[in-house]
Write a structure and sequence with these properties.
- By secondary structure, this protein is an alpha+beta fold.
- The chain is built from eight helices and 16 strands.
Length: 313
């Protein structure tokens, strides 16, 4: 079993829909969830006639991926753990609480320090504050066959120099990783996220080794707390045990089906709620694949498997 990280250096702007369920063309996330990345890879695999092969690798747990998280130069960031440990110092300081609430990602080099801060240790939170880019909103005109065009707003995320996204791949077979990288490279040319027809979402791929301190977290299956590093959902038979005693957040997962063969018009997937990255559970679970098919012609799979980081808290 091998872990590899892939840096995505974006050469164009990026539009990723928000999680709250309403139309969000005028707003955008910075990162891609693992299930979204998997769906994008599947769409690319269809073009190469490799959909069944790629999806089977994920079905059989030969391949697994994390969410995408930001990086800045050589520093990788992890999601802030979703957990409450009763830090009295933090509870009594409104300014400290506000700073902690605004944090989304923790630099890997300070991750152990942050975990100690959760238990009451001291940490300068200003060291954790980072900017990875900026969101801009542009006004465009839609031509719908009418005499007058209709203006609309489009949000585009642009990364700062030396910043981008990365994700972690776990592979149990070299041939599976080779196919994965081949499809990821093709995806980099097509783009990810929304408005690809306008040239958004294109990136360059760089394979890097997983840092030792991160590899230790990934391999620590016996730690008392397991942090989700992606968007996931246990299978029905795993659900009760997986959530018992844990701290977690739910995110809405919906959207449209990107397929020319699903229906005679663009149709929506069924909506489900999944566990957010950063959720802290007592043990790892396998997770499942969920068919979100509505009235279309073929299954629509949502990936519910991901990676974990074991920590001592």
């Amino acid at each position: 079993m091998a872990y590899t990280a892939y840096k995505l250096s974006f050469t164009t702007g990026l539009h990723i829909g928000q999680d709250y369920g309403r139309a969000s063309l005028d707003d955008s996330r910075m990162t891609l969830h693992s299930d979204t990345l998997f769906s994008a890879l599947c769409c690319e695999a269809v073009k190469k006639g490799k959909l069944f092969e790629l999806s089977e690798y994920f079905f059989q747990d030969i391949l697994a991926i994390s969410d995408t998280f930001p990086y800045r130069e050589q520093e990788l960031f992890l999601p802030k753990p979703i957990i409450y440990l009763g830090n009295h110092k933090r509870e009594g300081d409104p300014g400290l609480r506000k700073k902690l609430k605004s944090l989304e990602y923790i630099p890997l080099s300070l991750f152990e320090d942050y975990l100690r801060e959760l238990k009451g240790g001291g940490l300068d939170l200003e060291k954790l504050e980072q900017e990875f880019g900026s969101l801009t909103v542009v006004t465009k005109a839609a031509v719908t066959g009418q005499e007058q065009t209709r203006p609309y707003h489009q949000a585009i995320w642009r990364f700062a120099p030396s910043c981008g996204l990365y994700f972690i791949l776990r592979s149990r077979e070299a041939s599976a990783q080779t196919l994965f990288l081949e499809i990821l490279t093709e995806l980099s040319l097509s783009g990810v996220g929304g408005k690809q027809s306008a040239g958004l979402g294109k990136f360059k791929v760089e394979e890097i080794p997983v840092p030792k301190e991160l590899a230790e977290l990934l391999e620590n299956e016996k730690a008392p707390w397991q942090i989700l590093l992606g968007t996931a959902l246990p299978k029905d038979e795993e659900l009760e045990e997986a959530l018992f005693g844990g701290w977690y957040a739910l995110i809405r997962r919906g959207g449209f089906v990107r397929s020319d063969h699903y229906g005679d018009r663009q149709l929506k997937k069924r909506t489900i709620y999944m566990l957010a990255p950063g959720s802290c559970l007592k043990k790892r679970f396998t997770g499942g694949f969920f068919d979100l098919k509505g009235h279309g012609a073929h299954p629509v799979w949502r990936l519910g498997k991901t990676l974990f980081a074991g920590v001592n808290l």
